[in-house]
C-alpha cells in the first residue's frame, strides 16, 4: 500500500520520497514532506470588531451606529450593549440576543468590544 500523497499538480500516484521532499517522476514537481497536511488544515477564522480588536465567543460588544431592523421597522440604537455573543461563519458574523428585540445576527463591523 502506498501511503504517500498524490502529486498536487498532476495527481500522479507514482510519488516517491527523497529525504525531506516528495518528488513526482511524471511532472517533476517537488514539495516538502508535511506540506500537504498544512494545506489541508484550514486556518482558524479571526473575527475583529470595528476597532480591530479580536472577538471571541462570550464577549460583550457595543453597537456603534443605529441599525435598522428588516421586517419590523425597529431600530437598535447606538450604544446598545450586547452580552454573550456567539461567532459564526456566515454573512453576519455574530449571533446574539438583544434586550427588547430578541435573537438576531449582527456584522462585526458595526460593533465595538466593550
Automatic annotation (TrEMBL):
Q: Which domain of life is it from?
A: Bacteria
Protein YjdM C-terminal domain boundaries: 48-114
Gene3D superfamilies, per the entry:
2.20.25.10, SH3 Domains (2.30.30.40)
Report domain Protein YjdM N-terminal positions: 4-32
NCBIfam families cross-referenced by the UniProt entry: phnA
The family assignment reads:
Belongs to the YjdM family.
Q: What is this protein called?
A: Alkylphosphonate utilization protein
Amino acid at each position: 500500500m502506498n501511503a504517500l500523497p498524490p502529486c498536487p499538480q498532476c495527481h500522479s500516484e507514482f510519488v516517491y520520497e527523497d529525504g525531506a521532499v516528495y518528488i513526482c517522476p511524471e511532472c517533476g514537481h517537488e514539495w516538502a514532506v508535511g506540506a500537504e497536511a498544512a494545506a489541508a488544515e484550514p486556518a482558524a477564522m479571526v473575527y475583529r470588531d470595528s476597532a480591530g480588536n479580536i472577538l471571541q465567543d462570550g464577549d460583550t460588544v457595543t453597537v456603534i451606529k443605529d441599525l435598522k431592523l428588516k421586517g419590523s421597522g425597529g431600530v437598535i440604537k447606538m450604544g446598545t450593549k450586547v452580552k454573550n455573543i456567539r461567532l459564526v461563519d456566515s454573512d453576519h458574523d455574530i449571533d446574539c440576543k438583544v434586550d427588547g428585540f430578541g435573537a438576531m445576527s449582527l456584522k462585526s463591523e458595526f460593533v465595538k468590544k466593550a
